[in-house]
User: Fold these one by one.
Assistant:
Number 1:
Amino acid sequence: YQRRVHGSMYVRNDAKIFRFCSSKCTKLFKRKKNPLKTRWTKSYRRASGRELVYDKTLTFEKRRNIPVKYDRELVGKTIRAMKRVEEIKQRRMKSLYAKRMQVSVVVETQDDLRVLKNNLDWVPDAHRETVEQDVNTGLEKIKSGELKLRDYLMEAQNAAKS
């Protein structure tokens, strides 16, 4: 049977095969652009730690062209294993995403605290002293590394409740 293939393929003189998903990728390759410097490429995302690279679950996805005699029990085990591997992979991807976002939340909080510190005239007079103290302690905690994402969220929830 013939399977439908997307993209294009380039074979170099030394028989090295390059597969491209789109004409955009092909053109950049022919212009000798480095994919590690192009932000949307897979290689950039892997090199900068935005995707899983050295994970054991990725080795299960490799294609194996070894013929195996059909065995119903083996097929059942394989399908169950594939589902389990996918669950593990999804969980690890979520934890990687959460770890990456943790840094951005702390940075955003720091920026928010600085804006609030510079514009204390926005705060009503009755609450100005307490807000100023909270802002100063928050900035100190961030500088010292004490304030983590979980701590900040807990403090914000407690402040909202009271």
Number 2:
Amino acid sequence: YRSRLSGLWDESQAGKRMKVPTPYTWETQLAAKGNNSSTWKELILSRKLPYMAMLRNLRNIIQSGVNDNIHKIVQKKLSSPEDVKRSKQFPFRFLSAYAVLDSLEGEPGMAIAWSTTPDFEQEKILDSYKACLDKAVQLAAINNVKPIKGSLLLLFDCSDSMNAQCSAKGFGLTRTIREVAGLMTLMCMYSSEHCEIVFYNRSGVSVGEKIESGGEILKFLSTFVDNSKEADNAITLSSDPMSMSDFWSTITSTERHYDTVIQISPICSGLSSVRHLYREKVNSEVLSVEINLNSKRTYAHLDDPHQSTKHRNDITLYGFSDQMLQYISERGSGELLSNVEAIDKKFNLQPLPKPMAQSYISPLAKQIKSRVVRLFVSSTFLDLEKERQDLMNLVIPEINKLLIDKNFLIQEVDLRWGITKDEATSNKVILRCLEEVS
């Protein structure tokens, strides 16, 4: 009665642990029934195997020895436009599954049904899955990656430094920076309205390269990797290669319009001097993105627009993530900024009054330390700079005026003024923030 819950009180159940029924999921069924063909057949026919789980368990499904009917059901789901779009999987996610299929050729299976399958039958099954994934990755590039609007210039570093091992994970097999960069190039070709690729190394630039997308993913990667190596040799052996500065001078003088410029390299450099002139002569708002794939961490660095030599559309991305293309697309289209600017209109907010000369704080509130409320402000520094200033100059002073009679004081803590350069470079930002909060 006191708890006001429906039902009768069963005193015999008091103090006993209640066991929640085991849910019916593909993980629990595999744990209970084992990794075998009958289990996979039951999961697939009952539609209890989600898209991502199906993609990541292709090796187990194939090697378990399921029949042709199950293979067709799996392939139909993986290549279905509706299922690919609903899964929201990025194209990079399909490479690890493709690599699994490539590694299964000639590999004995864990089940007799697969191990005893003739080689030509195994090859036929694997080829059908590869064709299925080829279709799926193109659908993912079209439906799950926002298009890069306008004309794109992609500068691809083809030097020997691209042969180093890439620290990015999620590709199934160990990949070189050249291979990962090639895959990103393929995605740019699929997702951009117009893409022009230029190979370069320390010696110069190779222009006029024609690269056709399409076909199998790994086959395209292999061809692209070979093309980039050949371009590296051609530039190095050339008696008079075009320099990067001459290339930019040419496109600037001819006023070739690009909306986005992407440079992919283990160590990005060399754009700062030439893009300034390009912005003056051709496109003042060109988005310049440098992608440094030789980093174990994935993060973005935005140049400070308050510095005279910097521009708000200069971005450096480190490491690798399948979200990079989406970020570039949204940043290039102005979608991120427009969403922020549309908040006032969406919620019908009135414009803020002019800032007060200074914040008025009750003298009594200053003396009562036990009633000081510290308001910790945390957000991205550049994008929300105006909001932070309005919060400090307008909102908090007005709240303090209302709290005078209550003897409260709100004290703002904004770490824009408390984080030193040494703390930022030595990865002590989080520790400093936690100290302030505590």
Number 3:
Amino acid sequence: MPLRQHPITGLTNPRRQAIFSSILGLMLLCEPLTLPAPAVDLSTTVGALQAQEKTVESLFDEAAPSVVYITTFVEKTDRFSMNEIDVPAGTGSGFVWDTAGHIVTNFHVIRNAEKAKVVLTDVDGKTSNFNARLVGYNPDKDVAVLKIDGTSSLTPIRLAESTRLRVGQTTLAIGNPFGLDHSLTVGVVSGVGREVTSPTGRPITNVIQTDAAINPGNSGGALLDSSGRLIGMNTAIFSPSGASAGIGFAIPVDTLKYQVDTLIKNGKVQRPAIGISYVAAGQARALGVTRGVLVLDVPKNSAASKAGLQGSYRRADGEVVLGDVITGINGEQVSSDIDLFRAIDKYTPGETVSVRVTRLRSVGSGKPSEQEVRLSVRLQATEAV
């Protein structure tokens, strides 16, 4: 009988048998194949899963009355009646800070708004609407404080400490994404010590990164730890699509404590400043300054003026004379305006810092040379606007 050809390998039956025998022999000689451990612990009991679910459920029930729904409005003139009407401008989240009625949220939630309303939800699910007034804000840290009156049934959120956070800790985010009030998502601390940019362009440091889903409308909402305490305020996401991509950021509660308490007390936050105006990075590069912050103007009686910093100016013949270039603050290198803000924000108004600058020095009729100068500047206070 003629040998048959295998339709796939094209090998005759005896040859296939020989190959398979060789493979089988190799398999018997090799070490047993070790499969990776299952991603899910199969020994976990249904009871343990239910206990975990009940823990999350109880944490949500406890924290939900502390999280509020915020709607902002702008005034428009009705074209038919010519009356002023309130037009919804946006929605966001916030949380109850104290029993006095202070509500904390992001500055960008209420930015450009003329009115705001806060919706509270009690433990029984009953909602109450309140008109809110603005107490104060600090756009440099993207924090704003509102206040509502006429209620005594407030549940302030419990505060934790963000300095002790570790990557891998459980997080719970509560907010109002896409207008869906009191939505809960669960994740972990994905990173600490991150940095995001505030609405004014200044850096917000020590930000918490989490993979708990954060979407538009979650801004100003609460990020909680596994004990239901506030560890941060959900602020921003990194996403190509505008929706959650598993990378969310929250302003740490330790930053919030100082900002909120100061806003409640004074209505504003004084930030430290050198007292200069500076040339934007693009223009500075066009003038040949590739590193550092080029000083544009030094106002009279400012901290910088008293310390001897020099600004840029234009001579009578039209030639631009470059001013000092700030390259360091207290030994910390300054390569851009962001570096400058980051360095200064570590101090408070009234403290003295050492400012390292590069100054152009004319030498006869030749090309000016660079001179490194160190100046002591007593930081002045300016209001964040």
